[in-house]
Amino acid sequence: MYYQITYISDSLSNTTSTIIDEILETSRINNNKANITGCLIYYNNKFIQLLEGDEESVLNLIAKIKKDNRHKNFETISASPSEKRSFAGWGMAFYPIDDKNTSVQELEQFKNNIKLLIDISTPKTFTENVFWQEIKSNLDMV
Fold it and tell me: In terms of Cα–Cα distance, which of 44, 37, 33 is closest to 8?
């Protein structure tokens, strides 16, 4: 049996692509060691993440994430047990932070890619469904 948590938080105004890269690198190493998988979407200064693994490992990671000073307004929006992993081997979808240097076309491609992921996904748990609904809402796809 696995445990899933979906949370949302706001990045700080000084978040850069370097900071996102640091988060990615550290997360990949630590999550692999703890046998935690999931999906993290960063868009429009928001982090939306679903984490899954054994309950104790996931709750320990959530405690660390809550204390991380690179974001604020952390809110758990769903948590539930799961018989199977939904995101085995997944990483993070990333959209460049500097909107001034990113074209409208690149933004639309990002949204289309995420929409495709949503469309081909069949949520297996309530928490996974909440995760995709939160992404839709934040990408103005509802």
Answer: 44
Burial class (CB in 10 A: 0-12, 13-18, 19+), 5: buried
DSSP letter (8 states) at residue 12: P
The amino acid occupying position 107 is L
Phi and psi for 73 in degrees, rounded to 5?
A: 55, 45
Contact 58, 36 (CB under 8 A): yes
Judge whether residue 66 has pLDDT over 60.
Answer: yes
pTM, entire model: 0.86
**Residue 93 pLDDT > 70:** no
Amino acid letter for position 140: D
Q: In the predicted model, is pLDDT for residue 14 greater than 70? A: yes
Task: Provide the H-helix boundaries in the chain.
Answer: 17-34, 55-67, 104-120, 126-138
The string of pLDDT tens digits covering residues 31-46 is: 989 999 998 888 888 8
What distance, in Å, lies between the first and last C-alpha atoms of the chain? 32
